[in-house]
């Protein structure tokens, strides 16, 4: 039994080492990718249900690794956060999104808004406001074309400081959206103090909306709350006709999900938009 325990421990330690080594390698490869145009953005449409128009698009980070293949951001973002790379990577995302807004405009796409995800580390530690300002200056993009998605946990760690940062972003004209809403530990009473224009209902609720009464109730509550505060509600992760019907019934205004469109490379998004408006 003693030997067993020792073996179990050794196995555990080996796995730990492998994980540490893997993260280290991944971090180094991300640094290199950042210097060599190795990251891309994928764009997923947001559909306004009232008139079926595309009102925006979320830009999602994509990384193709030579050996690993496509690596999920859920895997590499935490590594970038812990390894101190997220501020540079996040800055690249904002810059690339603004560059793409300019390119979409040149192609003649309707002037939709592009949303980018802001990591908690980037929101708290980086000089996010200054950096955003200079990117907007450099690219000449109008601030209201840019939206930042932040999560509740980002905001709730230091509420006063977060409100200050949000207000500064609001002042320069960047839009703010509360991502993954309902999953965190935010107090609804705080919501009124936040200068946000959008709430995104987390996909975990959307995906249970047909099978779990509790999820439907949460969705209804979030929609009611947002209405009373004049905040736009976006439901994310919409995959089925049935989910869409439920969301319409609940009064949801904007939806995003595989049902309408997957995240697409910029060129594919452009042609997708063309097809959408033809129909
Ligand atoms: P998120 O911000 O909640 O993004 C939504 C995720 O749901 C995306 O996964 C998207 O591809 C996926 N999704 C969209 N529609 C559907 C659907 O109908 N069904 C299902 N099952 N999934 C759907 P993705 O692209 O793998 O990103 C995962 C997470 O990684 C994001 O979650 C976000 O937290 C993070 N992330 C992605 N890009 C960035 C970035 O540029 N910066 C930062 N800080 N985080 C990012
Ligand atoms: Ca998001
Ligand atoms: Ca989300
Ligand atoms: Ca999420």
From TrEMBL:
It comes from the Bacteria. Residues 23-277 form the EAL domain. This is EAL domain-containing protein. It comes from Hwanghaeella grinnelliae. The chain holds residues 445 to 723 of 731 of the full protein.
